Amino acid sequence: MKTTKLPLLIVFLIAPLTSLNAATPDFSKITSRADLDAVIAATTDTGLKKALTDHAADIVAAAERHPHVLAVIRTIESAPGTFTKVNTTPDALKKVTGNDLAIFDTLTLISTSIVNGKAHAYRGANEDPYDAAFIEHLGHIPTLESIKIVATKIDDAWLPPLLKLKNLKSLSMEGTARGLPGVPALGDPSLARLQALTQCPGLTSLELAYFGKATDAGLEQLAGLKNLESFTFRGSPIRGHAFAKFEGWTKLKRINFHSNNLDDEGLGYVCENFPNLEFIKLWHSKLITDASAEHFKKL
User: Fold this and answer.
1) Distance, CA of 98 to CA of 91 (rounded, Å)
2) Is 10 inside a domain boundary?
3) 188: closest CA among 161, 168, 214?
4) Which of 106, 207, 211, 291 has its CA 20 to 30 A from that of 193?
5) What pairs with residue 26 in β-bridges?
6) Beta strands 105-111 and 279-281: pairing type?
7) DSSP code, position 183
């Protein structure tokens, strides 16, 4: 019987390609730089050791973030909302291991709105898993750029974790499910906290809905958010007089005051201080009269 010997080169080519990559380290127990240093010390592959060392800060940050990402995903999947997951494995680590590393999974967008829900569709208070603990998890995911919070049990005290997220581009919040009995509404304390959004230079869209305890004095505290291009403040009792203090809002293109108590004077301040508006929504603004037509000439 004649046997055929395969050339050495062919043997190498048909060998599992995974053998060319270093084994993926176990990051599951890393909670500190000391933990990572122990992993690096135990690594024998020189390429992997260098990649781990060069990206140590990224790995520790990802390890801190990862359990919060998993918790948020679990909650959203239990009461379907939406999320966008991305993987941020540094190229050097991806090259040496041959794949994305799960510890670098993170989120850029979350929404707790009911998936495919109709207008004014809300979860009952007893079936809504979105609580203060969920918001706390969000505060540990600095990659988030877009957040929409619809939560029947929401409270003013929930907000601080969100204000840690400096990469936000869009934030939407609904304060209580249209004033459900026994559920506290958001109001001026929340607006005071939201002043901190001036530290989010990329924030261009802000929607605040059903802030049932808000006043014009509270709304005035948002006057510093001059980078907004879209601003919604709907379903609240404000008259709009606070807009007299909103100066320098030259980037604002769209505004929505659906179901507010905006009056003629308030609309006058809107048209005067937001000169570059291209869209304005005033549905169910029942205090506005025909006299306000003159204000639109300022736009």
Assistant:
1) 10
2) no
3) 214
4) 106
5) none
6) unpaired
7) -
The helix/strand/coil state of 203 is: coil
Identify which of 73, 109, 97 has the alpha carbon closest to the alpha carbon of residue 24: 97
Residue range of the domain that includes 294: 27-298
The CATH number of the domain where 34 resides is what? Answer: 3.80.10.10
Number of separate domains in the chain:
1
- Looking up tokens 């520790």 gives 60
Mean pLDDT of the chain, nearest integer: 89
Q: What is 137-173 written as a DSSP string? A: HHTT-TT--EEEEEETT--GGG-GGGGG-TT-SEEEE
- Give mean pLDDT in consecutive 10-residue pieces for the chain, a chain of 299 residues: 49 46 85 95 94 97 98 95 97 95 98 75 78 97 97 89 98 72 75 97 96 94 98 93 96 94 94 95 87 84
The two structure tokens encoding residue 153: 């049990």
Asked whether residue 16 is domain-assigned, the answer is no
